[in-house]
Amino acid sequence: MDLLETGAADLGVTLDRVQLDQFRLYYGELIQWNNHVNLTAVTDYEQVQTRHFLDSLTVDAVLPDTLRRSGRLLDVGSGAGLPGLPLRIAHPGLNVTLLDATAKKTAFLKHITRVLGLKDVEICTGRAESLAHDQTLRGMYDVVVSRAVARLSVLSELILPFCKVGGLAVAQKRGNVAAELCEAQVAIKSMGGVVKEVVDVEVEGVVDAAMLVVIEKTSATMERYPRRPGIPSKHPL
Q: Residue 87: which residues within 8 A CB-CB, separation 6 or more?
């Protein structure tokens, strides 16, 4: 885990031996499960360290100090646990919820959190459009993160309803981020959000790291959002 340790230090994140061992175990379980569950196309040991683990940890650059110590974080479309699990390993004080619509993937997430001995990690199986209307989840998170799930015009409707007013939504994006932001303005505003900043994080060992689109939740999302499953992607606001 030398690449991970060095890159994390470059981000200002110090990983001790226990945490590095957790990442090593995470890698082994990810590859084993990937033989029968489609979790990732990236399986090389060094590339998983950089393209998955380190890329996930770039989100740390925009996390408030208070959140790192004791905040609530939701990862929407978590898949193999990215970026939520690397952030939880790096910051044991985080209370993390991992959400994915695919039961086979959430089975892996339940397994890996148990194997790693992680506390304060909840796994939810279901569509974000439906779960965002669950009053135990809606408006309950300090930060909601998402990695490579959908275009911002769609993603805003899926993640912002989960944010507390005053909280943040952080989308990891690649490609023409400026164009996505332009087309997503109506959706972001409709969800009660405003773009706070776009951060291009450079970290040793990571080529083409995702840019971080940070959206602040300034007002509560209207009850009619998100719309029913499938509608946000078919008919973005």
A: 56, 57, 59, 60, 63, 73, 94, 96, 145
Q: For residue 69, what pLDDT is reported?
A: 85
- Nearest-angstrom CA–CA distance, 122 and 13: 24
pLDDT higher than 80, residue 217? yes
The residue-averaged pLDDT of 2-6 equals 94
Per-residue pLDDT tens over the stretch 119-162? 899 999 999 999 999 999 999 999 999 997 799 999 999 999 99
Percentage helix, strand, coil for the chain under 3-state DSSP, each rounded to 5: 45, 20, 35
Q: Identity (one letter) of the amino acid at 204?
A: E
Nearest to 162 by CA among 142, 188, 187, 148: 142
Query: For the residues of 33-90, what is the DSSP string, one character each?
Result: HHTTS---S---HHHIIIIIIIHHHGGGGG--HHHHHH-EEEEET-TTTTTHHHHHHH
Residue with tokens 């979790």: 39
Q: Tell me the two tokens of residue 192.
A: 């009660």
Question: Model-level pTM?
Answer: 0.96
SS3 232: helix
Chain-centre distance of CA 62, in angstroms? 13
Distances (CA, A) of 234 to 37, 173, 189: 27, 20, 19
Q: Is the dihedral of CA 224, 230, 233, 235 positive or negative?
A: negative
pLDDT at res. 231: 97
